[in-house]
Amino acid sequence: MIQERRGFSLNGYLIFVILIALHISFLLVIDSGSELAGIVGTVLTGLCWPGFFMVQPNQAKVMTLFGSYVGSVRETGLRWTIPLFIRKTISLRIRNFESAKIKVNDNLGNPIEIASIVVWSVTDSAEAVFEVDSYESYVNIQSEAALRNMASSYAYDPQDEDGIALRSHPQQISEKLKEEIQDRLGRAGVTVHEARISHLAYAQEIASAMLQRQQATAIIAARAKIVEGAVGMVEMALERLHDKGVVELDEERKAVMVSNLLVVLCGDKSTQPVVNAGSLY
User: Fold this and answer.
1) Can you tell me the distance from the alpha carbon of 156 to that of 167, in angstroms, rounded to the nearest whole number?
2) Residues 101 and 94: beta-carbon distance below 8 Å
3) Which of 72, 127, 171, 259 has its CA 20 to 30 A from that of 110?
């Protein structure tokens, strides 16, 4: 595995001044009569000019010589190196990649649609250039593959209290997705800074059925809460009536009262009162 190492380069501004001075001195040598030495020196000086190159902030120059890697330059500004070195520019800036919406089965076999956003950057220029054919294409393909594998490992909705699901645990899922992508992209000299799900939904063919199931679950949960509160209110009413001695009720009357209160408190529609104009019994 080829890893990044520092390549040979010098301050380009200093070398520029030196070459100008050498060029002028060799012209003076030619004028003084030593034409051969002056011409040779001028030619050699001219051959050094292609060694200048510019490095922008958050860029690296990967240098090779006759097919061999000789190092990378990250120092910004005007630099100079041996003119025979072939230099390739690699951006080290942070980039965003948003995957397309893909259809995959979750852990329970339900088809879902999912997409992700990956924030990444190149941290090893040598691996990015020499370990993969095209590191940008590699990032795109491997990110989608990692997303597909991660989505099939979890259910869309939680199945128990301790279970991790795609919809209910976004933080844990994001961390798992980041680890999954980093494992695949590490060999290409790429570091994943963030990975998160940008789209998550049931596939169109089952979306309606799953929506009904979610609604039913919500209704059951709400009804359970209502019944729990209603039972507490009935208990409190019976205790208050008994403690204050407002009315003495036998077991049959208590049952009727409890039934009426539960109907009033648990009903999803307003109740209509019935006035008893006759005797209580």
Assistant:
1) 6
2) no
3) 171
CA 223 – CA 267 distance, rounded (Å):
10
Cβ contact 3:124 at 8 Å: yes
Copy the structure tokens of residue 64.
């090779």
111: exposed, middle or buried (C-beta count within 10 Å: 0-12, 13-18, 19+)? middle
Distance from C-alpha of 92 to C-alpha of 74, rounded to nearest angstrom: 10
Gyration radius of the chain over CA positions: 38
Rounded to whole angstroms, how far apart are CA atoms 123 and 58? 10
CA-based nearest residue to 20, from 40, 54, 50, 45? 45
User: Please, are residues 211 and 120 in contact by the beta-carbon 8 Å criterion?
Assistant: no
Encoding tokens for residue 111?
């088809």
Among candidate residues 99, 80, 196, 106, the one with its CA nearest the CA of residue 140? 99
Asked if 157 and 163 touch (Cβ cutoff 8 Å), the reply is no
Helix H segments across the chain? 12-31, 35-48, 125-130, 135-151, 170-185, 204-244, 251-266
Greatest extent of the chain over all pairs of C-alpha atoms, in Å? 141
Helices 170-185 and 135-151, axial angle in degrees (round to 10): 140
Supply the pTM of this predicted model. Answer: 0.70
Place of tokens 């190492």: 5
Mean pLDDT of successive 10-residue segments in the chain (281 residues)? Answer: 90 92 83 75 87 94 94 94 94 92 87 92 94 92 92 83 82 92 92 92 70 66 73 76 68 70 65 58 51
